[in-house]
Amino acid sequence: MGRAFEFRKARKMKRWSAMAKTFTRIGKDIVIAVKEGGPNPETNARLRAVIQNAKAANMPKDNVERAIKKASDKDTANFKEVLFEGYAPHGIAILIETATDNNNRTVANIRSYFNKCNGTMGTQGSVEFMFDHTCNFRIPAEGQDVEELELEMIDFGVEEIFADEDGIMMYAPFESFGAIQKELESRGLEILSSGFDRIPQVTKELTEEQQADVEKLLEKIEEDDDVMNVYHTMQE
After folding, report:
1. CA dist., res. 199 & res. 236, Å (int)
2. Pairing status of strand 131-139 against strand 167-173
3. What sequence ranges are listed for the domain TACO1/YebC-like N-terminal (predicted)?
């Protein structure tokens, strides 16, 4: 198993357990996808992927339809995706993905979390290079030979594939998302969920006390409504 498997295993045990937070994130994803490519999932691959994720998270269909309708309204706030970077205590790099309709508010909030928890907010590009930007897909395992599927999907960019209790996971570089989505759909394979991750190239082991210092900052960041994902280099 590779880094993607270990990364997913660690993340599954922790972040984003609150259903309300998950629905909020998906709602923002829908708004961004609709603004980018229109309200029709048939012609908007990104929206199609978000709807699949909503289904996987058991988000009610009515909520999804409301979010699409709201995003189609010209008066709806235009959320923008903004990346923040910095360091937690003990040299742990942190990468924060946000979706915000007020960048000044988000910048001020993120900076305050770093300041209160003895961290340092970094400049653009200061830690992003420490993470591999990847995409992932999960499909049902039934009727699939993982080794055979891996050989077939290599041509479309898949670099790592493994089975777990939730199905078959595939990881590939960020830019391979469209090609893999198209190929899976053309094969008639159900995409249970898909998304993007930033996998740390190297992780750092800390003592329990040091981990607690970092966790304090991570929790503050993750509680912010504008924050979509948080990645770090602390070994979990």
Report:
1. 13
2. antiparallel
3. 4-73
As a whole number of Å, the CA-based R_g of the chain is: 18
How far apart CA 23 and CA 63 sit, in angstroms, is 9
Find where tokens 């190929």 sit. Answer: 183
Give the model's pLDDT for residue 11: 67
Residue 16 confidence class, pLDDT cut points 50, 70, 90: very low
Which domains does the chain carry? 14-70 (1.10.10.200), 79-127+202-230 (3.30.70.980), 129-197 (3.30.70.980)
H/E/C letters for each residue in the chain? CCHHHHHHHHHHCCCCCCHHHHHHHHHHHHHHHHHHHCCCCCCCHHHHHHHHHHHHCCCCHHHHHHHHHHHHCCCCCCCEEEEEEEEEHHHEEEEEEEEECCHHHHHHHHHHHHHHCCCEECCCCCCHHHEEEEEEEEECCCCCCHHHHHHHHHHHCCCEEEEECCEEEEEEEHHHHHHHHHHHHHCCCCCCEEEEEEEECCCECCCHHHHHHHHHHHHHHHCCCCEEEEEECECC
Measured CA to CA, the distance from residue 10 to residue 1 in angstroms comes to 13
Q: What is the pTM of this model?
A: 0.85
The phi, psi pair for 229, rounded to 5°, reads -150, 150
pLDDT given at position 110: 97
